[in-house]
Amino acid sequence: MDAGTSRITFEPRPEHLNSFHVTHGGASMTLLDVTMAHAARSLAVHMGVVTIEMKTSFMQPAKGPLTADGKVLHRYLDAIYEEALTRSKDDIWSQIAYLEIEGQQVSAAEFRGIAGVMLAGGRDTVVKLFTGIMWHFGKRPEDLELLRSHPELIGPAIQEFLRFLSPLPVMNRTVVPESSTTELPDDRYVGMSFISGNFDEMVYTNPFEIDFNRGRNPHLSFGFGPHTCLGNHITEIEAKVFLEAILSSGLSWKVTSEEIRYHQVPYTKVPDHFGSIKITAH
Ligand code: HEM
């Protein structure tokens, strides 16, 4: 372990394997957890470290000896900041590093804050949106051709993909202000189902169809009210750039295999999680 990074190699013993001879989930999660902790502790060796939340996506079965690499994100952002200041690339990080707020260039701490929000709020959501777009065009190439012949539908298509895919389907609100009090009622959370609004039959005709010609599309995929998604405009810009790139590529593709978990009734046509999709371009 060194300066915010760590590497652990692990040779599973027979008792760490499941009946398919794949490393047991508990063992691989422990490996990831310990690797993460080592990376964090390398920066402050006398401090303890706890894992608050860990999300993983398993891409393939873990067979044979395993190597886990850990990297502290803030250190990563420090390195990105230094590179952004050199303006060697015209990317989003250089744009943020040279942002001016009230005439003052953002500081390193502000850069970390903005970049952290962007990665936390805008990674899984945007990845799901783009994966869903690729998946849909693989199933319905005629929709891809429709956009190629009618580029004025790109904007409505982005809104329709946001509605149908509802990348962040539900959020909670707490009805009791959180404070240091320990006696908070168990039922203090109220779930707000954005996906429910997005498939409301009183608002949308055939809500389970993806239709770029809906006209008005008051979806709730970015939430509603004072906490509306801060990243809604950048998401729309990213989606536009993405769509323009795939449209101008001239490629079409079909989905050859997919591992998708769908939402529960009544949203069983709506992907909740894309495990993997394989496409073949032609
Ligand atoms: C497909 C892309 C995205 C979707 C579907 C999405 C969805 C949402 C939703 C539903 C909320 C909650 C709104 C509420 O509580 O009423 C939210 C909040 C938020 N999002 Fe996004 N988001 C996306 C992309 C992004 C990006 C790219 C960023 C950052 C650059 C971002 C930053 C935030 C932040 C900071 C909040 C909290 C706002 C607040 O509580 O005041 N999001 N987002």
Compile the SSE list and pairings.
Blueprint (H helix, E strand, L loop, with lengths): L4 E6 L14 H17 L24 E6 L1 H13 L6 H6 L2 E2 L2 E2 L2 H15 L1 H16 L1 H9 L4 H12 L4 E5 L14 E5 H5 L33 H18 L3 E10 L8 E11 L1
Antiparallel strand pairs: 1-2, 3-4, 5-6, 7-8
Bound molecules: protoporphyrin IX containing FE (HEM).
Protoporphyrin IX containing FE (HEM) binds next to helix 4, helix 5 and helix 9.
Molecular structure report:
- This protein has 282 residues and is α+β, with helices and mostly antiparallel strands.
- The protein folds into 3 domains: 5-71, Roll (Thiol Ester Dehydrase, Chain A), CATH 3.10.129.10; 74-120, no CATH class; 127-177 and 184-281, Cytochrome p450 (Orthogonal Bundle), CATH 1.10.630.10.
- It is 39% helix and 17% strand.
- The chain is built from 9 helices and 8 strands.
- The chain has helices spanning 25-41, 73-85, 92-97, 108-122, 124-139, 141-149, 154-165, 194-198, 232-249, and strands at 5-10, 66-71, 100-101, 104-105, 170-174, 189-193, 253-262, 271-281.
- Strands 1-2 form a two-stranded antiparallel sheet. A two-stranded antiparallel ribbon has the order 3-4. A two-stranded antiparallel ribbon has the order 5-6.
- A hairpin with an 8-residue loop joins strand 7 and strand 8.
- Helix 5 (124-139) packs across helix 6.
- The longest helix is centred in the last third of the chain and has 18 residues, at 232-249.
- The radius of gyration is 22 Å and the shape is globular.
- The termini are far apart.
- The mean pLDDT is 91.
- Bound molecules: protoporphyrin IX containing FE.
- Protoporphyrin IX containing FE (HEM) is lined by residues 117-118, 121-122, 125-126, 129, 167-168, 171, 194, 221-225, 227-231, 234-235.
